[in-house]
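hey so i finally got around to running the thing on that chain from the lab meeting. sorry it took forever, my laptop kept dying and i had to restart like 3 times. anyway pasting the input first so we r on the same page abt which one it is
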Amino acid sequence: MSTAPRTPLHPVLLAGGSGTRLWPLSRRAYPKQFVPLLGEGSLFAATLARLNGLDHVTPMVVCNEEQRFLVAEEIRNSAVSSAAILLEPVGRNTAPAIALAALEAQADDTDPILLVLPVDHAMPDIAAFARAVESAAAAAEDGALVTFGIEPQTPATGYGYIRAAVGEGVRPIEAFIEKPDRATAEQFLEEGGYYWNSGMFAFRASAFLHELEQYAPAILDATRAAHAGRTADLDFLRFDVEAFMGSPSESIDYAVMEHTDRAVVVPFDGAWSDVGSWQALWEAGIAEGEGDHEQNVMHGDVITSATRRCYLHASHRLIAAVGLEDCVVVETADAVLVAPRGRAQEVKKLVERLEADGRTEKDEHRRVYRPWGSYEGIDRGERFQVKRIIVKPGGQLSLQKHHHRAEHWVVVRGTARVTSEDNVFLLTENQSTYIPVGTTHRLENPEETSLELIEVQSGSYLGEDDIVRYEDQYGR
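ok and heres what got predicted. didnt touch it at all, straight out
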């Protein structure tokens, strides 16, 4: 077997996800990979930083249409100079997403080693990660399809397991096992040779596509057709929607890894979490030394008394906890979650209830992110609402008009360039303007610092769909 990879790695970052398990911090429009859950940066930012010590070419990121600008912003703010952003036309699980990336990686007639990484995992031991990647890349050079197995520290029931052949280092996989019950997980831990299934992979693009053709040809046919119809759009790569919709929705494990005789596992002995529940997030915080003397993991403005082993996250106001044990309390601008830590995974039922009731809290925070910045609802009543708008440097809203509402803008920080019909003018701090119903207008930030303003909307209908766009630099 090769002792070192002969070619650079081609990272493939999987950035999908609906964000339901860590509600209310994580939501469909702003899922957990973009939220600062551990420390100040996001999980996505930590994944990008993890690539720094590796010999790799420009990464690819696979994400959905709605989150494309969030992904672009994460990349701009990272040490990674650039990345190709591949937009899934619809969600079809990991096998089709990775197939698109593999086909795109071969578009320049090369056959790189793909390093497939979900962007919502916590892996603080970067040195251990680099060692595991080196072993995985060497095995992938020889045609293996490599997955990373996490050496279990507890009899966890929230992960799938991998049983490896007896031996040391890189070993063949004997079986993939679904999430076990507690007694079975304890037996796995006692016997040894079992690993948590991390969802990280390394293989040559050609090796993966060959096995996909053998075991899931319908996926390969659909993704080939979708890739053949690809088009560039700004910083994004789009694929044929109709063709991609014809692909079965299957995970890479189910489509390929459970069937191929090329599957091997590289043990990873560093700290790892998929941050898939509030329990997992508390455990990750403790592992990274964030717990206090009572093993409480706290973020934001939190004070406690006689409180132990809790996860307490305050986003907008003070959380004061007295006498709590093994609980989760998460506060956001528009929702508060309170649950025993051992039952916090049941938040999924609450999200289903929110969806059934048609409540917007399932999908969006009060602060909504856009490619030009963000807006946040402050107040709302009959025929009016008030928003706080932040436009990042150089950002501009589309040239647009509204049929049912007028808008009043008051600049509280920075400088705004305003287009109102044929007039273009600047507003500075404490200045304001009025945009009547039906007026074609645009808001821009011409400065190198953020623009902040208060917007008061008034009218018979205030929905976000009351927008007629004429020009938009973001291609919406």
